[in-house]
């Protein structure tokens, strides 16, 4: 069955209902061409440009399919993608359908041809036997023609205890993975590579990783040199004489006992004589035991006594008068100078009301000649950065785009008018958390359970949705839910309740979200292009259920089963099938004609198809045709209807087809 924890299934690696447009387009059927039944666990045949691979139908044009096959015809792969040696062409004398391509890691194989367990790259065998492995998957090493597991502390290795990389909180030192405290002098634990690296700073004795520098910062130097703090944030080891001496002015000062050459702005040490002045750029110290006094402040600050105060106004780098935001001379990055009569203000580059450019983060020039040089992280730039750029398309509602590539802006929210917007599902900065779809400081979590950039449970007044906690009664939470108790209990029309969800699970999902969510061993999905829907019944354990679409976006119409949104070419049709055949008409007095190409007058109760006006040719479930009328049989749903609904509920791939394909192919290349 399709596992709820992985996005794997019969169509390009995703679970899809059998009646979905994706499954129909792929020709996912039984081997004899018949429709799948509720007992089916995989596709047995594909058609067109799709090919069968381990129970799923894949397109050579999709991301997952192109990793497996480069050319397909008649529902099977004719040329496997052997470029990177992760997969090979089956050369058996007789190749069974769906086994044209074999993964290097597939120790079971097919037709007498196999891969090697835990193998990542290989060369194909002849017409029978195992492939020749040339590289193992992560966590394994090649020993003869067997991939053997590395020691638990190793991420990769060349022998059981000869590590080449480490994972988790371990760092590579030589060929061993050790804790961060085990590096010794002259090295530091680098969290980016999980290795112990040389400090690389001349005469530095001990150092540590600095997140701001993305590299090492010296802590102590070999005697007689001392640590000197540079204006760019770096550290060097310098002679005491190279630091600003007593009674002289400079960017540094000597701390007590001549132990460090600190920046004038360093306020981390509160000891008298060792503490600098915030925002100070030059200072002097009368003697070893006295505190430094500031002589000049950084941009946007004025010297008052020996303190630097921010009095230039927001965005000002320099100004002609303190305490007056209308006297800016130059602006900080992200602002531009606007002159209004005798006043000069610094305005945000994205302030359109003042002549800025929508979505712009950095700019050059002034009103009338302003050019955007960089867009905000949540805007897509059009043009060349560094020259003229427009920032028209908003890709995320969070201004930081959820922390860039380390985060994820994948929480789909349907607005009041039906437009699709995206909010944060993961914050790239682990100190931030997604509240109301935007990454905020962790001290704003409001009793919600959130850490490491994601929320897992929400308090009363909030509900959990795609990794974040959303507040009821305000946008964007009000777009999704109208009542809650830590999880949503009453969704809006564009959403449905997830069956069986608890306070610690996502309880609401957009009708048109085709990716879905999991509740234990059960998975639930929306219908692509769906505007409004009804919730599915609880799925069987290990299976997936789809919402029933009641209205679609744009001009498309739902099928009668509500499993997809399709284009109807005829007027007056309310429901359409995947092949464009009308299934029901908008008017209660009309029915589709026999071939489903038009709606005609046919006001006969229980009738679903008419050959001509008021001439019924087909009755619905619970009725039988008698002399152009439909007579009630008094029965419940027909066997055909029950089978149809069952098929619409879920079609799944055997095992972990899509997941394993991605895991061994795509992940193996990372």
From TrEMBL:
One Pfam family this sequence matches: VSP
UniProtKB keywords: Membrane, Transmembrane, Transmembrane helix
Transmembrane portions of the chain: 641-665
Keyword Lipoprotein (UniProt): no
UniProt xrefs under InterPro entries: EGF, Furin_repeat, Giardia_VSA, Giardia_VSP, Growth_fac_rcpt_cys_sf
This protein's record includes keyword Ion transport: no
Species: Giardia intestinalis (Giardia lamblia)
Species classification: Eukaryota, Metamonada, Diplomonadida, Hexamitidae, Giardiinae
Domain EGF-like: start-end pairs: 103-148, 149-178, 263-309, 311-347, 348-392, 395-440, 601-631
Protein name from the UniProt record: Variant-specific surface protein
